[in-house]
Amino acid sequence: MTAPKLLYTIEQPHGLGELYFLWQKGESHSLLATTGTDATVAIHDRSGQLLERMKLQGLCAGMEWDHDGDYLAIITPNSNTVLLWECHANKRINIETGLREPPSCIAWAYGEPLLAVGTQKGNLALYNHHTTKRIPIIGKHTKKITCAAWNKDSILVLASEDKSLSINNSDGDTLRMISLRDAPNDLQFSEMKTDERVSGENTISLVVGKRTLYLYNLLNPENPIELAFQQRYGSIVSYKWYGDGYILIGFSAGFIIAISTHIKEVGEELFQVKNHKDNLTDVAVCNGLAASCGDGQLKLISIWNNGEVSGSVMPAGGAERCSWSSDGRLLATAGRAYLNVYVTALPPLHAAYGTRVITLTSLTEATVYQCIAVGDEPEPVNKSEPTALATYTLPTEPHVVALGGAHVCCARGPLAWFSPLAGGPAARRHYPAPPTVLTLAGDYAAALFHGRAMLHAIDQADPSQPEKEAMLFPEPHMQGAKIVDIHLTSDFFIFVTDQGHIEYFGVEEWRTAVRYKHVCGIRGVYCDIGGARACITDERRRVHVYCPAADDCCALNRTATADVRGIIWDICLSDRNVFIIYTDEAIETYYYAANSINGSYVDLVGVTPLLAGQIPLILFSGDVYCYASGGSVLKLALDSHNTSGLADADTEKRLANQRRHIEKLLALRRFSEAWLFCDAVDEPELWRKMGEAAIAELNVEFAIRVYTRLSDVAMVWALEDASHIEDLSILCGTLCACLNRGAAAARWLQASGAGALAALELHAAQGDWARAAALAALACPHRAHDITLHRAQHLELTADYHEALTNYEKSLKTEDLDDIKVKEHNEKCEAGIARMAIRCGDVMRGLTTAMKHSHDIMLVKECAQLLEEEKQYSHAAALYDHAGNTEKAASLYIKLKSWLKVEALLPKINSPSIHIQYAKAKEAEGRYHDALKSYLKAQDYEAAIRLNLDKLDDIDEAVNLVQETKSIQGAKMVANYFQNSDDPTAAIKFLVMSLCYDEAFQLARKNGKLHLYGEILIQTSQARPEDFKSLALHFEGEKNHLLAGKFYFHAGEYSKAMSHLLRSGGSEEEENEAIGIAIDAAAASDDERLTRRLIEFLLGETDGTPREPRHLFRLYMAKRQFTEAAKTAVIIAGAECRAGAYREARDVVRAMCVSLRGSRLPVPRDMRHAIALLHSYILVRTHVKRGRHDIAARLLLRTAADVTFFPTPQHQVSILTSTVIECSRAGLKHQAYHWARVLMQPEYRSQIDPKYVKKIESVVRHGARGPPAAAPAAPCPHCGAALPVADLTCTNCEADLPFCLATGLHIVKDDLTACPECDFPAIMTEFVEILQEEGKCPMCGENVDYRRLVKIDDVAAYMDLNTSQ
Fold first, then answer.
1. Which residues contact 473 (CB under 8 A, 6 or more apart)?
2. What's the distance, CA 1001 to chain centroid?
3. Does 939 fall in a domain?
4. In b/e form, how buried is each residue of 467-504, taking b as 16+ CB within 10 angstroms?
5. Does one domain contain both 233 and 181?
6. Higher-confidence position of 1024 and 1246
7. With the CA atoms of 743, 744, 748 and 751 taken in that order, what torsion angle do they form, in degrees rounded to the nearest 10?
8. How far apart are CA 1324 and CA 1326, in angstroms?
9. Is residue 777 part of a domain?
10. Does residue 453 lie within any of the structural domains?
11. Furthest C-alpha separation in the chain
């Protein structure tokens, strides 16, 4: 919130008491009339100086300026005359109204000095000052006329204390009388908003009884509107119309509201604010701002921003009334004996010079700002933000300001004052007319006025000498031309005319330096700081960049449609080619490329939004310094130079921002900065884009750096060669060629006389042989034959054969025929002649020329192909045969039906197509066996099958071919054959093979072979679910639950399949098959409800008959429920043990262990214990057979220790007997004695085999002498402690140890391997011996080559799997 700036204060202009004022209307709008309690009217100018004071006969009752501001009418309550003051002549006139009573109100009409005077008794007088005619009208109203108003259509409205409103014409005739409910006041004319816009002031508004607002539309007189407001607002103090039919109303309680007069919005408050606590005395509106007086304060509010307060001030003497001057720049407020005038808006006067700007900061005050830091400025000024250097008081209120290196200039009318920046008296100059543009540079100034310009020195060195430094433009040679814009630099005075002239006048030489004539009239010129580049805008609304040094005018293609308000060049030396164009809404940033491979052109870099009221003045390295309201200067960063987001924490956003920034930098040709960001992003595409941009701008050295970074050696070499070229045209052409822009390169090279050879090479590289040949004939005759040959080859490719033949003939060389290169050249020419002769119809010439060079196989093939296209098959076949293309030759001989030649070539041919052609020909002749051989050689098995069936009647051979080749069409043919032969079984099989499922189903159904059809479908990988469903529905209808369920399973309908399979019944074999399919269905469906149904069935909960546990085990395995499967496996193993099937029990547990390990699940301890016991018992026989009784004894001791694991007493006695015998054989007498005593116990003794009784009794009888021998030990694979080889639990680390599948002993870390089939661990040396003897793994029974074994160093995997719980 900012307070308005006080311009001046007048203290007691009329003594103490009430003070009233009125601003002058019209264009001059500079005078202010005041009155008060001293019975005088004072006239003040804009600066507050008193111009005139008029003594009245009494207190002023009213005063009114006419609409042109020429006359001020004043009335008093005790005189029947009107005092009229003419401001231009300073003349006072007393006007008689023709009425006896004193006037009460006055109002001026629009367009003419017609004054309406209302009187105390309701009478009316009209006075025309031009004609001095007076018209008194008696009885217009019955009481005092309080207020009057005219509209622009000369309609006069009067309001009276008689509570009526009269509408009159300019002659005083009453048009309409309107009765009101209370006394009216504050009468105004305006325009009400309607759906259909009607121009003109059609609405009368007034306050009735100080409480309601009355709206009377002249176009709708029958429907007046009277608006009442809330009581808390108080009475209506004042109201003002603004905008498009809106009204701002001030109330005595301090409230301000805004309403709309649109018929759909009448009565609706747009906003409501309470700006004053106790009371409000007046409101005023101007250009989007409103002012209110109350509580001794003056407040400014924004009416377009919901009444937000934008400024506040406490004037001296308080504030009771306020009003804006007609230009909206000054706001006057009157209090008790004080008049205060504030500046609320200034004309946007500004100028720039170098790094400084000057702006008008008050009506007669200007401030110079330093915008860019410079080295020689004092420390407080050396900043990047605009800093005020000095404020200058101007001798007048200017309409133009200018700034130079040493002067400040202001002008009003034809006078201009030049004030030194360092201080001192101002030099005054009188121009022939008021200048519209003033510009300073150095010691000179230039002014533009009425289509002419004056250039002159600011300070005259010697006043006695004539002013020779002054000069008027345009010069005589520009007859009739008007100068429309000027610019002055330290070196040049530049002006443009409406006829398209651009002229540079040298200040030092004092003569014209450059002249240029544009194609149309010019509107403006905008130069850089030195004048070396200038932007011009012409009458066609186009923008061009003019470079006087190159005499080049480059057009700018603008896509924006907004009008150009101005153009500013960057004053930073490194960005001297950057300029901006600003409009009302945006700033467009451009880069001017004076020299590039594209010539001179202008690129759009970016667009930056511009706020209303901002005017760019200086551009420096991407920062724009703008004039803002009130004369301040703001710095604005261009979007084209914006660096925000380059350090974003989000990597993706940061990289995206950096990529966009690189594109901006390349558009601005800031290659060094772009290098840094490319290095950060490091993407080859960005590096390449930067290299191409550097090449386009002829920055060869930087481009070499970029392509060196890209390791593009070829491009670096090419650029290094180009860096030594001095001719601009050749350099541009070479760089265009580097960028694969051939057409541009050719234009550049041909533009230079020295580039003819390079242009020839370029045309040749582009394949533009016509131009190359024409250029070679002129510039390089020694290369004409080679270029003509290339042109002939190009014409041949474009099918211009006659012209190609002519060029081939022209390109033949006739000199130095013994030279090898000449021979090669002529051979190419003659080869072309051969081809073109055939193309042009001269077959014999082409054939003769081709055979002349028969050693050139490629040429012979090409000619053969051309002869074939010309349907010269005989010649073409002979050439193909000569070139070794026997297949093509054979094909043509087949067309010619030259069978002898074909048969001679067939042994050399592998192409199926030739054999097929030959086979078809032989089949047509009835030689079926020969045709069959050719079909088979061509692998056309369908044709061979057809031939066997239809012609040779060899069904067996046809069936073999179908089974070998899996031919679908062949199978269909065989199926049709079997159908016709009444063999439905074979027909069904081959119909399925041929994917004819529907026909196969119908045939199987017809012949009762649907079960066979289903089995065939199951074996087919391409069967469809609907085919299985058809079978399932059929068997469902036949109540065959097994087959219905089976085919529902294959159709993917698992619920139906389960329902039928569980109801299948029948034999044990059928039930087992049904259960197996049901298990597969449950696993495939992944439906827990189906799984529960099947488990209930297997456990007998459905029919009371439990099924074998192996089914449940298979279900859990299929469902990958390994924990439940493990429990079931132990149950099955126990059952197998009870049946004596220990190997089967071991296999069940082993399969479970493999599954758990494959799923990375722990193997339960009881399962590890079970497999260790079972495998140890099974290994005993193997080691007894090998004579390894020590190992067998150790394994039997382990088994005997847990003999109760084996359920039947008979098996237990057998195990204990074997233990005693093997321990005796191994010398383990103490162990033999121990287990012999166990056997002698009553529960075992009766079941001992009689042949072993005496031996066991002998062991018990003799006993064991001496201490037992220590058991052999091996290190624990986990902790390394010594451990008996047969122990599977370490007493040191308490780890469960895996056993060796070959010996049953615990594994050894240094001699470890694993079976490649079942992945169980083993001691490598023992496992190798067993595999060498038996060739099979003792655990899984698979054949294993001992050479496949690999020594394992890491025992941790097996330890982890065997110690997990």
1. 452, 453, 454, 455, 483, 493, 495, 503, 505
2. 58
3. no
4. eebeeebbeeebeebebbbbbbbbbbbbbbbbbbbbbb
5. no
6. 1246
7. 50
8. 6
9. yes
10. yes
11. 173
Burial of 136 per CB tally in 10 Å (0-12, 13-18, 19+): middle
State the average pLDDT over residues 1181-1201: 86
What total number of domains does the chain contain? 6
What angle, rounded to 10 degrees, do the helices at 756-766 and 769-779 form?
160
Closest CA to 680 of 648, 722, 708, 639: 648
Nearest to 1307 by CA among 1325, 1334, 1330: 1325
Residue 192: domain span: 56-211
How many CB atoms are closer than 10 A to CB 35? 24
- Which CATH number covers residue 191? 2.130.10.10
How far CA 1213 is from CA of 1102, 1193, 1235, in Å, comes to 41, 16, 10
Written in H, E and C, the secondary structure of 1172-1189 is HHHHHHHHHHHHHHHCCH
247 and 176 fall within a common domain: no
Query: pLDDT per residue over 1081-1132, tens digit each?
Result: 666 677 667 666 666 665 655 665 566 666 666 666 666 666 666 666 666 6
- Closest to 119 in 3D by CA, of 189, 172, 56: 172
Query: Is 358 found in the same domain as 259?
Result: no
What pLDDT does residue 24 have? 92
| Boundary-marking domain end, from 296, 312, 345 | 345
Q: Rounding to the nearest 10 degrees, give the CA dihedral for residues 658, 661, 666, 668.
A: -160
Cα–Cα distance measured from residue 333 to residue 291, given in angstroms and rounded to the nearest whole number: 10
* Res 390 pLDDT > 80: yes
Residues 515 and 453 in one domain: yes
Please count the residues of the chain.
1365
Task: Specify whether 441 is located in the same domain as 511.
Answer: yes
- CB count, 10 Å around CB of 1073? 17
Residues 551 and 412 in one domain: yes
d(CA 668, CA 671): 8
Dump the DSSP string for 434-462: --SEEEEETTEEEEEETTEEEEEESS-S-
194 and 274 co-located in one domain: no
Q: Residues near 905 by Cβ (< 8 Å), separated by ≥ 6?
A: 881, 886, 889, 890, 893
Which of 853, 870, 893 is the last residue before a domain boundary? Answer: 853
Over 90: is that where the pLDDT of 699 sits? no
Q: Which DSSP symbol is given to 337? A: S
Q: What angle do CA 961, 971, 934 make, to 5 degrees?
A: 40
With the C-alpha atoms ordered 656, 657, 659, 663, is the resulting torsion angle positive or negative? Answer: positive
Based on the domain organization, do 74 and 137 belong to the same domain? yes
Q: pTM of the entire structure?
A: 0.58
